[in-house]
Amino acid sequence: MFGKDSRIAVVGAGAIGGVVAALVSEVGYDVEIVCKYEDLAERVRTDGLHVFGAKGDHRAVMPAVADAMGLQVQDYGGKINYYKFLQG
After folding, report:
1. Is 4 exposed, middle or buried (0-12, 13-18, 19+ CB in 10 A)?
2. Whole-angstrom Cα distance, residue 26 to residue 88?
3. Pairing between β-strand 7-11 and β-strand 30-34 as defined by DSSP bridges
4. DSSP 3-state of 45
């Protein structure tokens, strides 16, 4: 199960992934996000994701990468092979 010490990777910083990453980060989880482009990943690392709506106005700065192999999130066995996961 997930505890606050769990590290979470969100693949995709679009409408859904961005909202999920920002809100989960705000409640105290260690979240890292994979963005499609490096310039977007840099903006997330420096300015954060800005999410607003029914749940309020939130800004979450978090680790972000444009290459899934750069993720710092690890599973129990070591580095997760995200490319294999993404390719099916």
Report:
1. exposed
2. 30
3. parallel
4. helix
Alpha-carbon gap, residue 84 to 80, rounded angstroms: 9
Q: What is the pTM of this model?
A: 0.72
**pLDDT tens by residue, 14-71:** 888 999 899 888 888 888 999 999 999 999 999 999 989 887 888 999 999 998 777 7
| The two structure tokens encoding residue 35 | 């963005």
Domain range summary for the chain, segments of one domain joined by +: 7-87
Return d(Cα 17, Cα 33) in angstroms, integer: 8
Assign domain 7-87 one CATH number from 3.30.70.580, 3.40.50.2300, 2.40.160.40, 3.40.50.720: 3.40.50.720
List all residues 6 or more positions away from 39 whose beta carbon is below 8 Å from its beta carbon: none
